[in-house]
Design brief:
This protein is an all-alpha fold. The protein is about 70% helix and about 0% strand.
């Protein structure tokens, strides 16, 4: 007569196998389901300058002739897309597939991270699946997926996740060297897509915090050397040096730290304010001492120090906090940016809070376990619906800029761009009102003044007067 333990073992093995199938399929399927309705959306905002009106990405030959240049792999992806299908639908299909692959990688990596943190197989798999679904469905991801120019964030993140996957495989594989080489290659591809990926070696160090530091640092040496080499290569290009000079002229480092301290709290809030997606947030720039910004800095430093000191005793919450802050560091710390913060900067940073929430729910006491699937389902339905609604904003330029202008009532840029969207669709009265509002909001907004003059003269670029003329 068979005993109970073998039966339990077989059942547990079946559960683990089923969990592995869900981890590799469900997040990707969720991405395809929720994002598919966005395929009909139009080009938006920077898409026109970066893709549509940029001849260097209109063919592979043109891309090659433009090299060396910044973000070569990102531009290669645009050129490849443009060569196959120049419509926004083709670009968005690629963006959705990138996001689906990233969501699958997230599930696998967080399951491994959960096992390392001491969770059992069942809890680790459930938490990883839920966190991967949070990553897949959260509406802040629309700016890196639906917004075509947001591919710089999502594609770089995908290569970072691939590099992390290779790193994990290299730790316990007989072919450790081959996996480590693949890790370095993916790291290089990530940086060739977006410079903020240079932070990846520190993310690998954080992920492997449960391992001996000396051994981890030794294995990370090739990646740190590669990071330094790529940094020097980037600084050898005039374009990067020019961008750095513009950045440093925008604000001082001290002003930027105060500004970004408040911006990080804003971005953290975006994870909870799921109905407050904002394509062009007008966050305040701190140019003099500000008590609120100073207190925000103190709070962030205290949180960072506490997390570092508790990496061994409280690995889950420390990992979540440090991961979130680490991936915001390239864009929201020392180097000033013209735009203080954007939702797409949360693309990888989201993993930290998502992981913490998932582990917390998966670890509920048996007396509350019956509520777990209800809570998870409600959260995922809310995120899916909000993401669907957010994607509707991208359907037309008018919808996009009406939403942006409504959320940023003091932004002359949003009002001016709304005026352009109206003019292109032959709504000249609405366009005139939008340009006048932009001028009223900012007296030195010469773009709006020029656009209003050109509108009155019938010379506004991009407006087809022949199409707008009523039929006789």
């Amino acid at each position: 007569m068979p005993s109970a333990p073998p039966l339990q073992t077989e059942t547990a093995a079946a559960d683990i196998s089923w969990s592995a199938v869900l981890l590799t399929t469900l997040p990707a399927l969720a991405v395809l389901l929720v994002w598919w309705p966005s395929l009909g959306a139009s080009f938006q905002f920077d898409d026109w300058n970066v893709i549509v009106n940029e001849p260097r990405v209109h063919s592979l030959a043109a891309w090659w002739q433009s090299m060396p240049g910044i973000r070569p792999l990102l531009k290669l992806s645009y050129a490849s897309n443009f060569s196959i299908d120049a419509s926004p639908t083709g670009f968005r299909i690629v963006n959705i597939l990138i996001h689906a692959l990233s969501a699958t990688l997230v599930g696998s990596l967080l399951r491994t991270r959960g096992l390392r943190a001491g969770l059992d197989e069942t809890h680790a798999s459930k938490a990883a699946l839920f966190a991967a679904l949070l990553f897949a469905l959260h509406p802040v991801q629309t700016e890196a997926v639906t917004y075509i120019s947001g591919r710089s964030s999502s594609l770089a993140a995908c290569f970072c996740l691939l590099s992390l996957y290779c790193w994990v495989r290299s730790e316990d594989s007989e072919r450790s060297s081959a996996w480590l080489v693949a890790c370095c290659v993916c790291f290089g591809l990530a940086v060739a897509t977006k410079e903020s990926a240079l932070i990846l070696p520190l993310a690998l160090l954080l992920y492997s915090a449960d391992r001996p530091w000396s051994a981890t640092l030794k294995r990370l040496l090739p990646l740190f050397l590669l990071m330094v080499a790529m940094l020097f290569a980037a600084m050898s290009l005039p374009t990067y040096r020019r961008l750095l000079a513009v950045s440093l002229d925008t604000r001082t480092v001290g002003e930027n730290l105060l500004t970004q301290a408040r911006a990080i709290f804003y971005l953290a809030g975006q994870l909870v304010r799921i109905t407050h997606g904002n394509a062009d947030p007008q966050l305040p720039q701190v140019s003099s001492f500000d008590w609120n910004a100073a207190l925000a800095c103190v709070a962030l430093v205290n949180t960072l120090v506490w997390s570092l000191l508790n990496m061994r005793r409280r690995p889950l919450v420390s990992f979540a906090v440090l991961w979130f802050m680490l991936w915001l560091a390239p864009t929201n710390s020392l180097l000033p940016r013209l735009d203080v913060a954007n939702d797409r900067q949360l693309y990888l940073a989201l993993l930290g809070p998502a992981w913490w929430l998932a582990v917390h729910l998966a670890s509920w006491r048996p007396s509350r376990a019956v509520l777990r699937p209800v809570a998870m389902a409600l959260i995922l339905v809310a995120l899916s619906w909000t993401t669907y609604r957010r994607n509707l904003v991208y359907q037309t330029e008018i919808a996009f800029w009406e939403d942006t202008a409504a959320r940023n009532r003091e932004s002359s840029r949003a009002a001016n761009n709304l005026g352009m969207a109206y003019a292109i669709e032959c709504r000249f009265t609405d366009a005139e009102a939008a340009f006048e509002r932009a001028i009223a909001l900012s007296g030195d907004d010469y773009y709006s003044r020029i656009n209003l003059i050109l509108l009155h003269k019938g010379l506004l670029p991009g407006v087809d007067r022949q199409r707008c003329r009523p039929a006789s």
